[in-house]
Write a structure and sequence with these properties.
Helix content is about 60%, strand content about 5%. The chain is mainly alpha-helical.
Length: about 150
């Protein structure tokens, strides 16, 4: 068994995919970057809201919550809005970084970037576009790979 972060991976899987450590490190970095973006984005959005509220005071009708006392409503509304802004920013960053990690994984496994594989036809077709049984006889000599670079029979 090979330890990968907190989990153990079978020796056969680790031997088949020698770049697994680098991919796991990339994914960990992507998720930590997303958490950092959430914290920084939420804090920045909260600070901007408080600054705007001081410069241009707005009434309770613009607060997110309409119950309770004025200070609590404004504060909770600001927290909820800034958390939503931080979540959106975090999602965008994490999604982009995870896509980079997926592209990196494909590159490490195949030696080519996903765009090169797609242009060369190395990525397998979706299941609905597979050749019919009578067409498979002529296409039997072709080696097909899935989007991860594994040979598909």
């Amino acid at each position: 068994m090979v330890t990968l972060g907190l989990r153990r991976v079978e020796d056969g899987v680790a031997a088949k995919h020698p770049a697994l450590q680098q991919y796991a490190a990339c994914q960990s970095h992507a998720f930590l970057k997303g958490i950092g973006t959430f914290l920084a984005g939420s804090g920045a959005a909260f600070a901007v809201q408080k600054l705007v509220n001081r410069k241009v005071p707005y009434g309770l009708q613009w607060s997110l919550l309409l119950a309770g006392d004025a200070l609590a409503v404004g504060f909770l509304g600001s927290i909820l809005v800034s958390s939503a802004a931080g979540s959106l920013a975090s999602y965008a960053v994490t999604r982009a970084e995870t896509q980079k990690c997926s592209d990196f994984w494909i590159y490490l496994e195949t030696g080519k970037f996903p765009q090169e594989l797609a242009m060369a036809g190395g990525v397998s077709q979706p299941a609905e576009d597979l050749p019919s049984p009578e067409d498979r006889g002529s296409a039997a000599s072709l080696v097909r790979k899935n989007k991860y670079g594994d040979i598909v029979e």
